[in-house]
Write a structure and sequence with these properties.
Helix content: 40-55%
CATH topology: Rossmann fold
Structural class: alpha/beta
CATH class: Alpha Beta
Order of helices and strands: EHEHHEHHEHHEH
Number of helices: 8
Mean pLDDT: 94
Shape: globular
Number of strands: 5
Strand content: 5-15%
Low-confidence stretches: none
């Protein structure tokens, strides 16, 4: 694989989707070939699994079932979208990846990261982001910034204690050397500039810019 794989992570409402879009537009203007994708989803079958996972009618879904479904969507996504794009030398920007499984199912659902890792090993098949951008903002602040008219999905509708466990997981996992932690303290445009600065050495090493 000779492309560049960047995942955006963070609690619900952190603004990662906006930051991914900003970065994609910046890279495209600079001449890079960019693929924007998301998890769960990104490919037709994975999008169908996404509907199951985020449907509030499935509120009673077992935690292990949830973890397995995320991994199933990931297996399809990696093989149909991520690997082919990287093989073509493209920059893949993904809205959530395996770090979310560790945070949401490992910490939030209490399954533990070891079990989540075992579940995801065949799904990933060694395909991991070159770098992960973690938007660091506590869940209370993140939810306060959400559009009040937004219809919340199954996970967004969980109580605050669940989201606090998820954030605890993200905070612990963000200490990895391949994670760039971005403090979301300014405007979305200031956050974008910070992300660009932090990723500049990565782009240079990959020959993207």
């Amino acid at each position: 694989m000779n492309g560049l794989f960047i995942a955006f992570e963070g609690p619900d409402g952190c603004g990662k989707s906006t930051q991914l879009r900003f970065l994609a537009e910046y890279l495209e203007k600079s001449g890079a070939s960019v693929i924007r994708t998301r998890e769960p989803g990104g490919s037709p079958i994975a999008e169908k699994i996404r509907e199951l996972l985020l449907d509030k009618d499935n509120a009673q879904m077992d935690a292990v079932t949830e973890a397995l479904l995320y991994a199933a969507a990931r297996a399809e996504h990696v093989r149909k979208v991520v690997r082919p794009a990287l093989a073509e030398g493209k920059v893949v920007l993904c809205d959530r990846f395996v770090l979310s499984s560790y945070a949401y199912q490992g910490y939030g659902r209490g399954l533990g990261t070891e079990l989540v890792q075992r579940i995801n090993e065949p799904a990933l098949d060694g395909c991991l982001p070159d770098v992960t951008v973690f938007i660091n903002i506590p869940p209370e602040r993140a939810f306060a910034r959400m559009n009040e008219n937004k219809v919340r999905d199954r996970l967004e509708s969980e109580d605050i204690s669940f989201h606090e466990r998820v954030f605890e997981g993200f905070t612990a996992l963000s200490r990895s050397e391949d994670v760039i932690c971005i403090e979301a303290v300014g405007t979305k445009f200031e956050t974008h500039e910070t992300i660009k600065q932090q990723l500049a050495p990565v782009f240079v090493r990959a020959g993207v810019l």
